[in-house]
Amino acid sequence: MIHSKNVKARLFFTYLKDKTELFLYIKPQGTSGSRIIYRRAPGDAAMSLRIEALLENAGILRSDIEIWILLYPPEIHTTTIYIPSELSDLEIASHIRESVLSNQPYAINYDWKNYIMQRRENGHKQEMVTITFLGKNVLPRIRSLLYKDHPKVNFIGDGLQFLNVDNTRTPQVRGETYELFLPYDEIYYKATFRSGIHFESLGLPHGCSSEFGPYKLEPEQVYLKINRNGSKLDLPVFQPLVPKVVWKETLLTPAAFPTWYIALRSMEQHDHVNFAELFHAAKDQEKPAKQKGVTPDHYLD
Hints:
By secondary structure, the protein is α+β, with helices and mostly antiparallel strands. The chain is built from six helices and 16 strands.
């Protein structure tokens, strides 16, 4: 949840090429419960005025908010490779450019100088290296859209990382590789996790079809798919995660579902990949980004 005493609301700003979304979560005050407001708008120069109108309607001052920017493929991309553990950071950087860069269809559009790399031991003298990188124009575009609100930005990152499920509520995912599917307008996003670690995000060009083999994925829902290789457990391949009654009680427009779900999940997860420091830093004074819970973990230039 929102832990700072000075912040009364969190504004989630979803940046997509053809539109933007504003989702305002107002935390409980005294005897009043939390409130949420959702707006969809074009990504143009009037964004600052739209934010001002939204906050005025909610009775919230600009000084009382923090801004979280949620990005999705292709504006942000997360992928994972496996490499020998004895490689240095410079050797890994070279390996990333050779193995990851070469497999990207629009590699020229991404910022390969500033990305977040996470190294984790995988056993047998091998490491799992997860890389998250941004489109070249994402940060400048966000800065221009937010205009005078950009100092309030606390988070910029892959929204799909918050699809991760809680293994205390969903024990069948423990020790498993699993996928989460999120229908979002005409796109189906997929986030892959291994034992709770996010290591891939994809936007699926599914031809506007909701059918995945014999399964049909409905909108306003999130689906869990567990990859049980060789398992004979009688479980559905795609398992819906959100009780319909919980979503209906929000009284929000159907278009708000993806942002509503990810926003609420993000307030339950504290370890995440965040580009906000890079956003605030001057180009010639970029500082290393420190992520909690992973060692070592930094930007590469």
